[in-house]
């Protein structure tokens, strides 16, 4: 959570600008706000980093995914291919716009694979919600031809891949719409916040209205605005946007330091018997928020986790059993436990979620252990962590366990 590590005077200054005027609302009030427009500033910082033609800040990464889906025209009854490894918000967003998730296989990129998508496509598939996981990116040269061949709509949840890119294009800009999260745990934080990006003007206008009760934001009289579509309140406040802007300006520095730390870790661990790394479809585009290592198999990963815990090393995630990011933990979806009835409960699920056959995803996540990279580490910190990981893996793979 590098952004959170760097919270400081810059963020406080931006917040104070807003506190001076007291205009916490992102729209209108042109005179008393005295030229302070933090949501707009935040959006232009995100455009600078990503090269997106349009960016729209909202209240969270989750509402950004929901807005991205709606603005791409995805709604009730549409079948959407999704990965079984993602933050649950992706699946919730698909369900809550009324669409029907279809789980497909990921591969060693930790993202949906072209083969996984191809295998899951049916005549009813409308879209793919591709998630760029763990700071990295999906293999876009392989995936885009599948999207085009089947005339699918691509929406990208780059919730944890802000400032990552593939061959020069930012994650989030391959599809119709894309989005990032700026929650407390991401490369940059707004406290709570998210940003939708697109190069499509019509999608942007839809998103802009959808995320604010349908307002078209033309003119300076909110009561007299037109409402091209129904929407809801997914707005970001000026206070959150102020923090998001200050943090986003730190992202080029964070990305550089993270990559250097990760490179050294990979160098130190590269020779260790039994360790390999997740595939980076474009190593130059890594935002390097995670070091993702593979053990030879799920049992070896489990033993390594036990050794890491014994050694008091807490800075890792074993998503296979411990985290809310993998389908093995999503019993509420498998049992469709909902607060109130969703469209999928009327239309019927396109798959039997209790009996999904995703052996590749089970194998990949079973072998995966991820370490959060910190941008405040010293070289000594990095070397110590590498030493600890080496010890734990060596112990876990020692023949005594065989
Ligand atoms: C964090 C995250 C989200 C949700 O973002 P919030 O800002 O926490 O709502 C959505 N998708 C992915 C892939 C994420 O990692």
Describe the structure concisely.
The protein is an alpha/beta fold and 402 residues long.
Describe this structure in words.
- The chain is α/β, with parallel strands linked by helices.
- The chain has two domains: 2-250, Aspartate Aminotransferase, domain 2 (3-Layer(aba) Sandwich), CATH 3.40.640; 252-401, Alpha-Beta Complex (Aspartate Aminotransferase, domain 1).
- Helix content is 40%, strand content 13%.
- The protein has 16 helices and 13 strands.
- The protein has a seven-stranded mixed sheet, with helices on both faces. Strands 10-11-13-12 form a four-stranded antiparallel sheet. The chain has a two-stranded antiparallel ribbon with strand order 6-7.
- Helix 3 (38-50) runs parallel beside helix 9 (238-248).
- The model has no long low-confidence stretch (mean pLDDT 97).
Give a topology summary.
Elements: H1 2-5, H2 9-21, H3 38-50, E1 54-58, H4 61-71, E2 79-82, H5 89-96, E3 100-103, H6 114-120, E4 125-131, H7 140-149, E5 153-157, E6 165-166, E7 169-170, E8 177-181, E9 194-198, H8 201-210, H9 238-248, H10 251-269, E10 276-277, E11 290-294, H11 298-310, E12 316-317, H12 319-322, H13 331-334, H14 343-347, H15 359-367, E13 368-372, H16 379-397
Parallel strand pairs: 2-3, 2-4, 4-5, 5-8
Antiparallel strand pairs: 1-9, 6-7, 8-9, 10-11, 11-13, 12-13
Helix pairs in contact: 2-9, 3-9, 4-5, 4-8, 6-7, 10-16, 11-15, 11-16
This protein binds pyridoxal-5'-phosphate.
């Amino acid at each position: 959570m590098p952004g959170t590590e760097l919270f400081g005077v810059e963020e406080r200054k931006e917040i104070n600008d807003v506190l001076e005027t007291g205009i916490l609302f992102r729209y209108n009030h042109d005179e008393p706000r005295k030229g302070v427009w933090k949501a707009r500033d935040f959006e232009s910082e995100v455009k600078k980093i990503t090269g997106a033609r349009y960016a729209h800040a909202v209240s969270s990464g989750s509402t950004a995914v929901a807005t991205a889906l709606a603005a791409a025209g995805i709604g009730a009854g549409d079948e959407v291919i999704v990965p079984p490894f993602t933050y649950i918000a992706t699946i919730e967003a698909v369900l809550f716009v009324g669409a029907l998730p279809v789980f497909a296989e990921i591969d060693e990129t930790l993202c949906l694979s072209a083969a996984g998508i191809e295998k899951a496509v049916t005549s009813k598939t409308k879209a793919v919600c591709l998630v760029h996981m763990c700071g990295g990116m999906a293999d876009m040269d392989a995936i885009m031809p599948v999207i085009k061949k089947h005339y699918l709509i691509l929406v990208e949840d780059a919730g944890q891949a802000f400032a990552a890119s593939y061959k020069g294009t930012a994650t989030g800009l391959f599809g119709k719409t894309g989005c990032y999260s700026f929650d407390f745990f991401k490369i940059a934080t707004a406290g709570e916040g998210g940003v939708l990006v697109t190069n499509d003007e019509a999608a942007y206008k839809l998103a802009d209205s959808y995320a604010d009760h349908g307002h078209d934001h033309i003119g300076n009289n909110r009561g007299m605005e037109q409402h091209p579509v129904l929407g809801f309140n997914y707005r970001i406040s000026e206070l959150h946007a102020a923090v998001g802007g200050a943090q986003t300006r730190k992202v080029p520095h964070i990305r550089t330091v993270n990559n250097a730390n990760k490179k050294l870790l990979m160098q130190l661990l590269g020779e260790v018997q039994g360790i390999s790394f997740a595939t980076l479809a474009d190593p130059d585009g890594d935002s390097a928020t995670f070091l993702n290592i593979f053990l030879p198999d799920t049992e070896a990963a489990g033993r390594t986790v036990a050794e890491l815990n014994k050694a008091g090393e807490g800075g890792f995630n074993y998503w296979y059993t411990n985290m809310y990011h993998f389908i093995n933990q999503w019993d509420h979806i498998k049992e469709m436990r909902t607060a109130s009835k969703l469209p999928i409960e009327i239309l019927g699920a396109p798959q039997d979620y209790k009996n999904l056959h995703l052996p590749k995803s089970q194998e990949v996540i079973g072998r995966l252990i991820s370490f959060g990279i910190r941008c405040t580490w010293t070289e000594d910190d990095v070397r110590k962590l590498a030493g600890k990981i080496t010890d734990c893996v060596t112990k876990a793979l020692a023949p005594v366990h065989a």
